[in-house]
Amino acid sequence: MTNSIAEIEDAACILAVGTSTTDAHPVIGYRVKRAVRKGAKLIVINPQDIQLCQFADLHLPLNPGSDVALLMGMVRVIIEENLHDAEFIEKRCENFEQFKESLAEFTPQFVSEKTGLDWDLIVKAARMYAENSPASILYAMGITQHSHGTDNVLATSNLALITGNMGKPSTGVNPLRGQNNVQGACDMGSLPNVFTGYQKVDNEEARRKFEGAWGVSLSGTPGITHTEIFDAVHEGKIKAIYLAGENPILSEANASNAREAMHKLEFFVAQDIFLNETAVLADVVLPATSFAEKNGTFVNTERRVQRVRQVINPIGEARPDWWITSAIANEMGAEGFAYNSAEEIFDELTALTPSYAGLTYERIAEKGIQWPCPSKDHPGTKYLHAEKFATPSGRGKLVPLVFRPSAETCDSEYPIVLTTERNLFQFHSTVTRYAAGLDELSGDEHILINPVDAKELDIADGDLVEVKSRRGTIKVKAKVTDHTHLGVASLSFHFAECPTNLLTSAALDPVSKIPETKVCAISIEKI
Questions:
Q1: d(Cα 47, Cα 64) in Å, to the nearest integer?
Q2: Cα–Cα distance between 72 and 397 in angstroms, integer?
Q3: Which is deepest, 10, 112, 145, 193, by most CB within 10 Å?
Q4: What's the Cα-to-Cα distance from 220 to each of 199, 210, 227, 361, rounded to whole Å?
Q5: H/E element holding 13?
Q6: Using CA atoms, how far apart are residues 232 and 227, in angstroms rounded to an integer?
Q7: Are residues 320 and 194 in the same domain?
Q8: What CATH number does residue 124 fall under?
């Protein structure tokens, strides 16, 4: 997030796009509701009638995959009606004139056609966002999990920049991360093109620093992304996988491709806290500890680095992830893995990572600190870009965009769009299915179908249906509800009994390499 969670409450306007906040991020959802009670305007952009719509001033149920058309249409309205922050653009942004010219594509007719929304509603949303400052944008995987997800994110940035809603309290573009420490994993260099703190592997200065610290020679060539690994297995380029904390058999788009890849491996190691659907395929299973059994740090969605403290002894043969990795490295004869604690590893991290340089276990003991924190006397950073942007010029770049349709479209054989969502009572791919109490609250899956679609398909509430896509077939009970819109159905992916991702598309965004799981053409037939 560019800003902090607490700042949401003081926003005058909140634009929640591609996020079912009260289900996927209920604590942040509570902050949004408090802001509304304090007078904030709330705009929800979502193809579904999510719970947050109950508190919204405006709900824009756009066609799945049409976010760029909608957001750039709003930008066009704001500029044409002179609602943009000309002073902020002049002082802090670049490329404005070229950017304005690029808006010619986003005419009222074009935007309405692509989004399925009345132009007057889009104009109303644009005015509400521009006229109520400070304004905060919240987004989640409903924005990123598209074949043009990078463009979607850039469109949110354009909207914030032209209204001056960046680099100030209660503003910004705020992605809500999908898991509890995914921000921390990225910060630690888990992405294939960076070291810790997003220091690029192809930057010679950064690479030399790490080589000197670790006493090894490092490649300057970025690796492949998570989503590309399974295709590389099929191509014979990867023959072994060491998988820690993932369950791709359920969570990967076009999951049958991942399952087939796992069977092709010559050697497969799974390291996890449960013997999940993927781990049962492994040659070796290494039992890891949960958060309650270890010491260390987590980083939350607002960049806050926080302590995690052990409260129970590891169960059975489980060991902390860092201990397992170090033990394997030592067994293989590697040097530099003689760690005695997670804190030693953290100290090494801070010495090599400028954005973490001011952090210590003592400093983050109680409330944590938000990076960047470049020195021991720095308090941490509540919101980013206050003075300048992280670009070569220090100015925010307005990016011209064109509308690109989703990679997959409907036809007579697959006439309905499937989008995926989250369930308040379950978490990710079966992680919470081991808790009987949560299964009491929500123990099985239903596909949500609009009443008009259900009537046409002769489907009643509770009917067992067969759902097909161009990749796979599942069986699931139907829930007929007007919370989903005409021509759109939805499923979560928490249930092994109903492996939703057998259906979804693995078409990738060319930049982020994230798959298009939010748009999938399906057919639904009563069994």
A1: 6
A2: 15
A3: 145
A4: 12, 12, 21, 32
A5: strand 13-17
A6: 10
A7: yes
A8: 3.40.228.10
SS3 15: strand
Residue with tokens 């049958």: 256
Q: Is 58 within 8 Å of 132 (Cβ atoms)?
A: no
Contact call for residues 318 and 289 (beta carbons, < 8 A): yes
Give tens-digit pLDDT for 361-412. Answer: 999 999 999 999 999 999 999 999 999 998 999 999 999 999 999 999 999 9
Tokens of 316: 């059975």
Please report whether residue 408 resides in a domain.
Answer: no
Do 111 and 202 belong together in one domain?
no
pTM across the whole model: 0.93
Read out DSSP for 162-221? HTT-SSSTT-SEEE--SSTTHHHHHHTT-STTB-GGG-BTT-HHHHHHHHHHHTS----S
Q: DSSP string spanning 507-527?
A: PBPTTT--B-TT-EEEEEEE-
- Three-state DSSP at 149 gives helix
The tokens describing 224, both together, are: 């492949």
Task: Give the Cα separation of 522 and 204 in Å (integer).
Answer: 47
Contact status, residue 25 vs residue 191, Cβ threshold 8 Å: no
Length of the chain measured in residues: 527
- Asked if residue 133 and residue 22 are part of one domain, the reply reads yes
d(CA 303, CA 79): 32
Tokens 């791709």 belong to 248
Residue with tokens 């690479």: 207
pLDDT tens for each residue of 416-447: 999 988 877 777 766 777 778 877 777 788 99
Q: Are residues 148 and 46 in the same domain?
A: yes
Beta strands 464-468 and 473-480 are antiparallel
What Cα–Cα distance (Å) separates residue 183 from each residue in 180, 197, 227, 329?
8, 11, 18, 25
